[in-house]
Amino acid sequence: MDNLCSLTIAQAHEKLRKKEISSEELTQACIDRIAAVDSRLNAVVFNGAEMAMEQAKAVDAAGDFSSPLAGIPYLTKDVYCEAGVPTTACSNVLRDKTYVPPFDSTTTTRLKKAGALSLGKVNTDEFTMGASTETSCYGVTRNPWNTDCVAGGSSGGSAAAVAADECLFALGTDTGGSIRQPAGYCNCAGIRTTYGRTSRYGVMSMASSLDTIGPIGKSVEDLAIILGAIAGKDSLDATTADVPVPDYRKALTGNVKGLTIGIPKEYFVDGMNAEVEGAVREAAKVLESLGATLKEISLPHTEHATPAYYVICPSEVSSNMARYDGVRFGHTTSGAADLRSYYEEARSSGFGAEVKRRIMIGTYALSAGYFDAYYRQAQKVRALIKRDFDDVYSAGVDVILSPVSPTPAFKVGAHQDDPVAMYLEDIFLDSQVMAGIPAMSVPCGFSKDGLPIGLQIMGKQWDEATVLRAGHAYEQATEWHKQKPTL
Ligand code: GLN
Q: Which ligand 1 atom is the nearest neighbour of the CA of 425?
């Protein structure tokens, strides 16, 4: 029974339902795994073993395993509020005097209702700003496939924890790729939903018009199970839409016959990493052999997505970070001469370099005289990027394939002195954010150094079902997602 923690949700659910295992055993297996491997990874920042065991016992006692998530342990990125559980956004601003929210996010509430149980919190870049989990006040999370490398970010803790079998699934957030990139770097499946499909209530904001929340898991089927529990309108988040949530599991027919898959030429450029290109082109061929039709397409404004993202995102960051003023939450300072210097000192000593950089860029881009030149201009670019997708989809394309990242996971510290190199990690991940469409990362191969390579599958707005269907069919035909790191 010692590898219970490596089961998928679907597999564990079968065993729980047949009473072959208990939730207590399953949860204990994850707790033991965390104790055995996390000192090498640094994924878990708050260990909630005790509360998880209590919940597991309660689920076992109730004995109702009709929900596919009943008794399933998971970990949460440290930006989701859970009542009574420390939540710090991996920032000294909230870690100092540990912020403990008095309320739950909608997503963790929905998971609780479905019977899932929280094992604690995992690492992220500070307030989710980054692509490597190196900006966390708790230090970097390491990649289970090679601990010299990053796990990606900002949901690096979530992806590393899933890949290392510390939990059955984890929650992440994706503003500019933070679910998809770490999932790709760690050989996991991860989905960014349509903006408005999942509730952001109770999740600390980074850039409100771009932020989405979603799961990282061990299979596409597991993502479908989780989305079934968490997606849908929430009266506490006005940006969620009243669009019916289909039965995502039913969508997993294994059949892609008749599906038209777009291959955008802008994502396959001269000089790109040959192993990444090879793995993604091979994945396209697999889907073609299953009956899908491949079609070369063009998304002409792709190259402008990342520059526009790095105007819009910091602008919204500068506004969202204003609430951390040293008065209302967490980190404070003493001995300031007046209120203004109090704010200055609390914020200067509390925030890390990347957060400060974005506050400054964003404040500049929004200031009178520059607003039209930067923020408004970036919003116009955003509209053009969305139009690129609209054109392609209305011409009959169902889903689009691309790499998740330009290279496999990079070494810890590789971009330490070069913030722009770190921003370029999102080069394939920002267009979908601009357009508000769903996109998923699934494992599609390994580099010769043994590092995972991710395949990105993008869909139409609200059409997570087709994205999941294509990803699931691909997974059924391949073995990549079954590979496990040796730790
Ligand atoms: N790497 C991106 C950034 O730093 C993505 C962050 C995110 O999605 N939270 O903004």
A: 1
413-425 mean pLDDT:
94
Measured by CA distance, the residue closest to atom 5 of ligand 1 is: 176
DSSP strand E in 287-387: where? Answer: 293-297
Q: What is the DSSP string of 381-393?
A: HHHHHHHHHHHHH
Measured at the CA of 372, the angle between CA 368 and CA 375, to 5 degrees, comes to 95
Among 15, 77, 121, 218, which one carries the catalytic annotation? 77
Please give the Cα distance from 275 to 256 (Å, whole number): 26
As a whole number, mean pLDDT of residues 81-98 equals 94
Parallel, antiparallel, or unpaired: how do β-strands 169-174 and 212-217 relate? antiparallel
Positive/negative CA dihedral, 224, 225, 230, 231: positive
State the CATH architecture for 4-255.
Alpha-Beta Complex (3.90)
**Picking from 93-102, 291-300, 406-415, which range would have the lowest pLDDT averaged per residue?**
93-102
Mutate to test the pocket of ligand 1, among 124, 313, 354 (most ligand atoms within 8 A of CB): 313
Say yes or no: CB of residue 402 within 6 Å of ligand 1.
Answer: no
- The answer to whether 460 touches 393, Cβ cutoff 8 Å, is yes
| Bridge partners, 262 (sequence order) | 295, 400
Backbone angles phi, psi at 250, to 5 degrees: -65, -30
Determine whether the shortest distance from the Cβ of 211 to ligand 1 is under 6 A: no
- Domain coordinates in residue numbering, the chain: 4-255
Query: Is pLDDT at 404 greater than 50 in this prediction?
Result: yes
Most informative mutation of 79, 129, 173, 211 for ligand 1 (most atoms within 8 A of CB): 129
C-alpha–C-alpha distance, residues 63 and 17, integer Å: 9
28 CA distance to ligand 1 middle (Å)? 33
The single residue of 178, 205, 441, 447 carrying the catalytic annotation is: 178
Best residue among 91, 155, 178, 208 to mutate for probing ligand 1's pocket (most ligand atoms within 8 Å of CB) is 178
82 pairs with which residues across the strands? 85
Please give the number of the atom of ligand 1 that sits closest to the Cα of 207.
9
294 forms beta bridges with 261
**1 pLDDT higher than 70:** no
Give the separation between CA 415 and CA 417, rounded to whole angstroms.
6
Active site residue 178: yes
- Per-residue confidence at 271, pLDDT binned at 50, 70, 90? confident
| Residue 77 a catalytic site member | yes
For residue 2, pLDDT over 70 is answered with: no
Residue 383 has pLDDT above 60, yes or no: yes
Q: What is the pLDDT of residues 449-459, one digit of tens each?
A: 999 999 999 99
Integer Cα distance of 155 and 55 in angstroms: 25
Q: Ligand 1: does its nearest atom lie under 6 Å from the Cβ of 177?
A: yes
One-letter identity of residue 222: D
